[in-house]
């Protein structure tokens, strides 16, 4: 499949009430529509109105390395990181991107465009995020090329290693693994937020990528940000975005700023918002509930299995809990099922198979972030598949 298509919709689906399996449930993409309900309840708190004369200029802050970065957005991102304690923002430059997807390409450009005539290798430990190989190679760039699983990679040359933690697709907590001493690490921390995993430390890496798509769920706003220590790399990333799209939508940055501000405001000491109505408490409890339901459906039989994660204490919430990732990395254990994606497709559940992530087709990735309605139909259907005799 393509990394993204337009067949998913956030509109509710119905299973006909007969517990049948006619309705196609698409959980292939990590489309975060789960968050719609919360933001609907928040009413006008994050509504942004932009008059026609405003934000006409290409420029935002010409004194900043990232001259198209809206100061209000930068301020809101720093404030949120300080509140959650998931990343160090001091001594880092902020680069805004059209999703963290654009920042991924900007970072490859910044790190790989050297005088070396050979393309620089880009690796990540399997199972890796299925878009990395596609985004690395689709333009057949002469400066970088996808070199696959970091576990099987060894070199004396410079290379780039993507460290995705928690990992997409399997939710694991990760460190660099490639065998080489000239690796440049890029930390993709899209899921390092307290609804998915205990926050155990303030990440202080040289290059860190974040996105609003997975933090607050506003994937359609297309805003991501990079925290970059080296000003030379920050400048080159900015140059890439300048050549690529001459900056990043100010309307979107403004909207993203408003959303991040609203999230942080609820944690202010003067806020009178109830604890369970604050964004991260709310999204945490939805994930607790979903993982409980998913494990209950899977544990009914030996047909399927899920990864187990060790619990840890979250410095943000004070709670001790097991990671509850944005994706379920499910294995079809039955010997007769070689291709887990096809197995689920035959039951009208669309998932993404292991081969997209560089591993066995016995695995599938299933989004845990879709609407309540789709998730319910999915777990009901999975329960029935679990109860079937193998
Ligand atoms: N990195 C990871 C690990 C992801 O899972 C995603 C979204 N699926 C992205 C980056 C890209 O996010 P976006 O472009 O929406 O910011």
From TrEMBL:
Which GO molecular function terms does the record list?
Answer: carbon-sulfur lyase activity; transaminase activity
Is Transferase one of the keywords?
yes
Q: Which Pfam families match?
A: Alliinase_C
Ranges where the Alliinase C-terminal domain occurs: 25-385
Keywords, in A-Z order = Aminotransferase, Pyridoxal phosphate, Transferase
Presence of keyword DNA repair: no
For the biological process aspect of GO, one term held by this record is:
amino acid metabolic process
Per the entry, which co-factors are needed?
Answer: pyridoxal 5'-phosphate
Query: InterPro entries in the record, alphabetically?
Result: Alliinase_C, Alliinase_N_sf, Ethylene_sulfur-biosynth, PyrdxlP-dep_Trfase, PyrdxlP-dep_Trfase_major, PyrdxlP-dep_Trfase_small
Q: Which family does it belong to?
A: Belongs to the alliinase family.
**What name is this protein filed under?**
Tryptophan aminotransferase-related protein 2
Q: Which organism is it from?
A: Heracleum sosnowskyi
């Amino acid at each position: 499949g393509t990394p993204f298509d337009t067949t998913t919709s956030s509109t509710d689906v119905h299973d006909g009430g007969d517990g049948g399996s006619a309705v196609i449930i698409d959980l292939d993409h990590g489309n975060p529509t789960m968050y719609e309900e919360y933001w609907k309840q928040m009413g006008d708190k994050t509504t942004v109105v932009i008059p026609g004369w405003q934000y006409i200029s290409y420029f935002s802050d010409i004194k900043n390395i990232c001259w198209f970065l809206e100061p209000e957005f930068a301020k809101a991102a720093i404030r949120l990181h300080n509140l959650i304690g998931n990343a160090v923002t001091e001594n880092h430059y902020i680069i805004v991107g059209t999703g963290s997807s654009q920042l991924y390409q900007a970072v490859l450009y910044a790190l790989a465009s050297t005088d070396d005539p050979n393309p620089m290798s880009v690796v990540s430990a399997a199972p890796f995020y299925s878009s990395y190989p596609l985004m690395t190679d689709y333009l057949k760039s002469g400066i970088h090329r996808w070199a696959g699983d970091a576990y099987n990679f060894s070199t004396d040359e410079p290379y780039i290693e993507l460290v995705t933690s928690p990992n997409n697709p399997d939710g694991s907590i990760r460190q660099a693994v490639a065998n080489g001493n000239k690796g440049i690490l890029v930390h993709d921390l899209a899921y390092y937020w307290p609804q998915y995993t205990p926050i155990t430390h303030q990440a202080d890496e040289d290059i860190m990528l974040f996105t609003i798509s997975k933090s607050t769920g506003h994937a359609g706003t297309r805003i991501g940000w990079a925290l970059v220590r080296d000003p030379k790399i920050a400048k080159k990333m900015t140059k890439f975005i300048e050549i690529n799209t001459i900056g990043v939508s100010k309307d979107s940055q403004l909207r993203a700023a408003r959303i991040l501000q609203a999230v942080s405001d609820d944690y202010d000491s003067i806020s009178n918002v109830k604890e369970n109505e604050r964004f991260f408490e709310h999204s945490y409890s939805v994930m607790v509930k979903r993982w409980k339901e998913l494990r209950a459906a899977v544990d009914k039989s030996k047909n399927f299995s899920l990864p187990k994660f060790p619990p840890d204490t979250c410095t943000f919430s004070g709670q001790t809990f097991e990671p509850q990732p944005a994706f379920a990395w499910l294995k079809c254990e039955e010997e007769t099922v070689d291709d887990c994606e096809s197995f689920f497709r035959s039951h009208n559940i669309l998932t993404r198979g292991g081969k997209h992530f560089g591993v066995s087709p016995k695995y599938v990735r299933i989004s845990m972030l879709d609407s309540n309605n789709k998730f319910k139909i999915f777990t009901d259907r999975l329960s029935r598949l679990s109860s079937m005799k193998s």
